[in-house]
Amino acid sequence: MAIEEIQSLLHSTETSRIERTESTTNMDKFQEAICAFSNDMSNSRQNGYLIIGAKDNGELSGLKVDDELYQKIAGIRSDGNILPIPMMTCERYELEGGDLLIVEVQPAFSPPVRYRGRTFIRIGPRRDIATLDEERILTEKRMSNMASYDALPCDRATLEDVDIDFIRKEYIPKAVDAEELLNDSRPIEEQMASLGLYDLQRHCPTNACIILFGKKPKQFLPGMYLQYVRFAGLDKGGEILDDKPFNSSLSRMMPQLEVFIDYGVVNTRPIAVSSLREKNQSNYPKEALRELILNACMHRDYQSHAPTRFYQFDDRIEIMNPGGLYGKARPENFPNVNDYRNPIIAQALKILGYVNMFNRGISRVKRLMLENGGAEPHFDITKITAFEVTSYSALEMTDNQSKTMTSEDDFTKLFTKLFTKLVPKYFPSKEEKNLYVLIRHLIEPHKASELSVILGITDRTVRNRYLTKMLQAGIIELTIPDKPTSRNQCYRLKQA
User: What pLDDT was estimated at residue 329?
Assistant: First the structure.
């Protein structure tokens, strides 16, 4: 934004589109303002601006915007308190007299937008909670936009085809502020319409409602199911050991999948980490699989007749959903930029507690897989009409590593090779005994604290005297490379 534009915003009288504040700590105020700008009650179809670091008269307050404040404000978009997710950008500007942090908010395609269950709007310079009639206007605006497939009416469906009791007793109380709900005397159809679940013009549920709460969603959307298949071996040519379809609505399918992953997919068994000690190792961290399945169901293309595919092999799991990268997400910016093919479904999954933060799933999955002792999952974004992720079994990797180290001769050869890399460049020859012990144990991932017990020295000493130099020599690696100081950090030999 040019300096002329900033000066114009600072001194503009268009108070319905601009809010200036000196506060840097009132997060409720900031999020209410963003929510109100998103709803664009005046239907100006222009962006709104929250300007932090300016007084009401447009003068600069002398604010110094640090990284903590910048990240906190930018994080509003993905923290899930404002639903549907607001379309906003956040930029820091250094001016003579102080800094500004300007949040630019675009009008939402799918109003009403709520902050913690309340619908905020702007009436001139005033920010307030929308009345029932004002919510109706916002609902009609969303229906006229119809920006996404999940917002479209499911013409053949009626209220008899959805679980109204669940919506009324479980979903709406979580989606709408309790005080607002107490005073809401509208019929259930209008309450559902305000959440994108009912089309008042066509008098039928939306596709999102059928996907989320339909009694028999596959009857209306043929691709609305997830297919699990367990193959023997390493490819689809192997014998099918298990075949299980999940074809309920998402509100019922997600709890079923959680139980199935815990007891039908994740396998935990003890593995040896030294001659005297064992630890429990899982093939996959259940939280990571849950996240991958959730993302597949949330982002898939529900116009496709193909199911979400969940295939398990001896050494990996492949999850593929119809619909490739969407909207602003491109191969060159993945996974840093995200967009939502199904905003109403994404909103509902956040409300129901299956999503904690938006746009954090992939980084979280990578971290969980590495912490579990496995490899990073592979995301295939080259398919135009599908999105596929492959996760590798940590138990299979451990077994393969163990097979290569079964004989003492093999280890002796390995140690000799590594020892010549370390001595005398990094260590004196007198360290041979401790290096032998470390290399022997680092065949499997170990924390510094575990190695310190084995060597009888402190954590700091084992890091400074041995692990740092072995990292420099390139013979060991971190299991969580993007978080070197993580308390779950482990060290292991680099695989050849």
Answer: 80
Residue 407 pLDDT > 60, yes or no? no
Task: Encode pLDDT of 92-146 as tens digits.
Answer: 999 988 999 999 999 998 889 999 999 999 988 888 999 988 888 888 887 766 6
SS3 for the chain is CCHHHHHHHHHCCCCCCEEEECCCCCHHHHHHHHHHHHHCCCCCCCCEEEEECECCCCCECCCCCCHHHHHHHHHHHHCCCEECCCCEEEEEEEECCEEEEEEEECCCCCCCCEECCEEEEEECCEEEECCHHHHHHHHHHHHHHCCCHHHCECCCCCHHHECHHHHHHHHHHHHCCHHHHHCCCCCHHHHHHCCCCEECCCCEEEHHHHHHHECCHHHCCCCCCEEEEEECCCCCCCCEEEEEEECCCHHHHHHHHHHHHHHHHCCEEEEECCCCCEEEEECCCHHHHHHHHHHHHHHCCCCCCCCEEEEECCCEEEEEEECCCCCCCCCCCCCCCCCCCCHHHHHHHHHCCCCCCCCCHHHHHHHHHHHCCCCCCEEECCCCCEEEEEEECHHHHHHHHHHCCCCHHHHHHHHHHHHHHHCCCCCCHHHHHHHHHHHHHCCCCECHHHHHHHHCCCHHHHHHHHHHHHHHHCCEEECCCCCCCCCCCCEEECCC
pLDDT given at position 427: 93
Entry pTM: 0.68
Q: How confident is the model at residue 188 (pLDDT cuts 50, 70, 90)?
A: very high
